[in-house]
Amino acid sequence: MFEIGKHNTLTILRDTDPGLYLGNVEESDEVVLLPHKYKPESYNIGDEIRVFIYLDNEERPVATTLEPFVLLNTFGYLHCSDVTKHGAFMDWGLEKQLFVSFKEQARPMKINNWYIVYLYLDEKTNRLAGSSKTNQFLQNDTLTIQRFEEVNILVTHLTEKGANVIINGVHKGLIYLEDIFEDIRTGDRIKAFVKKIRDDNKIDIVIQTPGFKSIEPNAQYILDELKATGGFLPLHDKSSPETIKENLGLSKKSFKKAIGSLYKNKQIVIKEDGIELL
After folding, report:
1. Domain count of the chain?
2. Structural domain that includes position 96
3. Same domain, 221 and 258
4. Which of 189, 159, 187 is nearest to 175 (CA)?
5. Spatial CB neighbours of 192, under 8 Å, sequence gap ≥ 6
6. Can you tell me the distance from the alpha carbon of 36 to that of 27, in angstroms, rounded to the nearest whole number?
7. pLDDT tens digit sequence for 76-120
8. Which helix (H) or strand (E) element contains residue 257?
9. Which of 41, 57, 104, 211 has the most Cβ atoms closer than 10 angstroms to its Cβ?
10. How much of the chain, in percent, has pLDDT values that exceed 70?
């Protein structure tokens, strides 16, 4: 049995004018069409092929070798290509566009704007649909992560506090403004780390490895910068946080920890006007 909204590995059962009919050898009564334009250049009956299955304009299952921008029960950052009296239509990489009804829009969608959208299967109609009301698909009641763990995040929007993110496609989190040392934007997918889990299960995220674990990678980063600049950087423990952030993208606290580690390992010397590679 194939799954709508996901990748399926199916067997080529027969070749016809419209295209290839695919299915499982054990369940030959259930087949799906891979249209002629998506046929591989060479194939044999009985070969296996990986395809994505969705519903065509007549709501029939159809296979494609195109790669969608979002899969079932996941989040994507999609472009709104049209808005009608029925709702909005999103470009998700396939011929048939993804429909987002007005009731599933967190705010009214506009043509040419980009939105975080969740792909779900409507149980009433058995159709794939999108929703920008992402909070209903996230939960922090039961956490599947722990402090210092590496996670995958999707940046959803920026506020005065920082960057709101989706963690591993399951939880909500926040990167506080003071922990942002690089340019990030809505739609960015980034490797990050759990800095703190609060008593109310709110999750603080950082892009750099948190706590004591950040010393080593930041020290290596500064070593690389020293080598690239001829062995000297006009930064030291008395430099302002703004200057350090502008030049290295690090907080002053992380910078001081890193150069302290390098100094202890006798890899640099700290001078009045900067640090020098030994």
Report:
1. 4
2. 75-135
3. yes
4. 159
5. 150, 151, 152, 153, 165, 175, 205, 206, 207
6. 23
7. 999 999 999 999 999 999 999 999 999 999 999 999 999 999 999
8. helix 252-264
9. 104
10. 96
- Separation of alpha carbons 210 and 233, rounded Å: 24
Judge whether 53 lies within some domain.
yes
Looking up residue 198, the CATH number of its domain turns out to be 2.40.50.140
Residue 263, H or E segment: helix 252-264
> Considering the domain boundaries, does residue 225 fall inside one?
yes
Tens-place pLDDT, residues 42-80: 999 999 999 999 998 888 899 999 999 999 999 999 999
Q: For the chain, where are the E strands, in sequence order? A: 7-15, 19-24, 27-35, 48-55, 61-64, 75-83, 87-91, 98-101, 114-122, 127-131, 150-158, 162-167, 171-176, 189-197, 203-206, 232-233, 268-271, 274-277
Q: Which of 50, 98, 45 is nearest to 76 (CA)?
A: 98
Is residue 2, in this structure, part of any structural domain at all?
no
The domain boundary, picked from 64, 94, 110, lies at 64
163 and 216 part of one domain: no
List 164's β-bridge partners, or say none: 157, 174
pTM of this structure = 0.74
Do residue 219 and residue 265 come from a single domain?
Answer: yes
Which tokens is 160 given?
């005065």
